[in-house]
Amino acid sequence: MNSDIAKNIQQLADQYHEMLVKWWHHLHQHPELSFEEHQTRHYLSKQLDKLGIHDQQTVAKTGLLTHIEGKNPKGKTLVLRADMDALPITEENDIPYGSRNKGVMHACGHDVHMTCVLGAAKILRDIRDQWKGTVVILFQPGEEKVPGGARQIVESGILNRYHPDLILGQHVDPTLKAGMVGYRPGKYMASADELYLTVVGRGGHAALPDKVTNTPYIAAKMLTTMEDMVEKETSGGFPSILRFGKVEALGATNIVPDKVTMEGTFRTFDESWRNEIHKKITGMVQNLANHFHARADLEIRKGYPVLENDTASTFKAMTFSAHYLGKDKIISLDLRMTSEDFAYYSRIAPSLYFRLGITAPGQNTIHPLHTSRFNIYEPALSLGTGHLAWLTYSFLQDQ
Fold first, then answer.
1. Residue 98 and residue 246 in one domain
2. 43/143 same-domain check
3. How many domains does the chain have?
4. Alpha-carbon distance 318 to 126, whole Å?
């Protein structure tokens, strides 16, 4: 590995720190919800133009795609992906760069992801005579909203023209200190499906059981049976979970409602078993409904697939990162039951998704992702940007 290039990238990242902070502050102040990222796209496009990167096109309605060529564009092709959307959360941080869009906040760090990819593009363009190949820059909308922007981009086939050798994505992690990165080869994040169940019967007075359908009892029976089924039949040694977070029965102390609705989530790490359990759940619900002379309407909305990192690329990345950051800065990650639409990219090319530390040294209070007080330690911007540029350079040079 070229230590001179690594040092040069570090110096450039430090040199551009104020610019990175300026970008990040603007993006943080102007968050937009999924597939509404029009101003975000406009801002990113404007910054790319300033960097001399002009060949841009819109993807997935509000996303942006462009590329940079090295001294020999016929080498490898890497895609750097950053998600763009914010969350419907009211920010409570007392900061001068706080959200100006009431009720919307970058509480998941997508503003950081965009900043790092934009910064890496700047650095890689600066040193383009030092590498060969093509770097595709992808700003992807709608990660937070099923079916997700990644699926739209993959299904459009727009990335296929580049024949990518690897697609890279990163996500901030408030449990990691700035300057640290985390990796996990193979399966990393779970699939995620949404369940919507309505149990319908004859409502009425609770004191007249022969005249009513006990819809709350039937719904409860279905809920516990489904959760027990998933727990008992978990496949392949990987965890699975089915939980209902919303149950609504609008009756009264002495009134049995004619309808009970439930909404839940199912997550697993086994795609084949995922499809199998969908069928088992559907069959069980209908059998119970028939047994109690009720009607059950079940909808399973299939969400993001299992996110599986390319194993060989992950181990290479760990080596590259250790050279740039130090061996003690590389962390092995645990499985996560959360999901991420980056998983779709593995359907068209090897992909790698890793975690970026963003917390200050010595910081004890950590505000998690998706909360109104989430924030980052500013030096993480130049650390993350330089690391991403180095990682990209290293993969391009790796033969």
1. no
2. yes
3. 2
4. 25
Which residue carries 């909308």 as its tokens? 141
| Pairwise CA distance, residues 338 & 353, whole Å | 13
- Helices marked H in 326-378 — which ranges? none
Residue 332 has pLDDT above 80, yes or no: yes
d(CA 45, CA 356): 25
Q: How far apart are CA 84 and CA 101, in angstroms?
A: 15
Q: What is the CATH number of the domain that holds 323?
A: 3.40.630.10
Q: Which of the four pLDDT bands, split at 50, 70 and 90, describes residue 112?
A: very high
Residues 291 and 314 in one domain: no
| Closest of 21, 309, 370 to residue 173, by C-alpha | 370
Structural domain that includes position 278: 193-301
pLDDT tens-digit map of 253-287: 999 999 999 999 999 999 999 999 999 999 999 99
Say which residue the tokens 């119970």 belong to.
Answer: 288
Rounded to two decimals, the pTM is 0.93
